[in-house]
Amino acid sequence: MRTNILMVEDNPSDVYFWRELFRDVPNMPEVHWVKDGTEALNYICQRDQFKNVAPPDIILLDLNMPRLDGYQLLQLLKNEERTAHIPVIIFTTSRDESDRSQCADLGAALFLTKPSGVEESKKLVSQLVDSEFPRLVKSA
Q: Using CA atoms, how far apart are residues 117 and 131, in angstroms rounded to an integer?
């Protein structure tokens, strides 16, 4: 069974790029996309147009988004009993140590800075699919 990933990202170009990278690896996860934290809550809670979706095994979460940002969403998810078990990987351009520590305090499983190059990005995706995703799903 494939891992069900929810990517919460407001930049469609980033989503396209990362989805393409995920397609190139064996055991490719199922990657779903929503554009902000509000849509993510609707997806995870299976509301509105997301009534029949499978809940995510893992959430890839950008920090800087409109409406409900990544920090707010992470806090909501980790404070809610029915969603606290879902591993959240922060996937951002931020290299700020205070962002990293704040996300860890809020319950993020991992904090990853988006690589700038294609080869580095491919390596990161392979590592996520081969080792991090199975480890996180097993411990959830």
A: 21
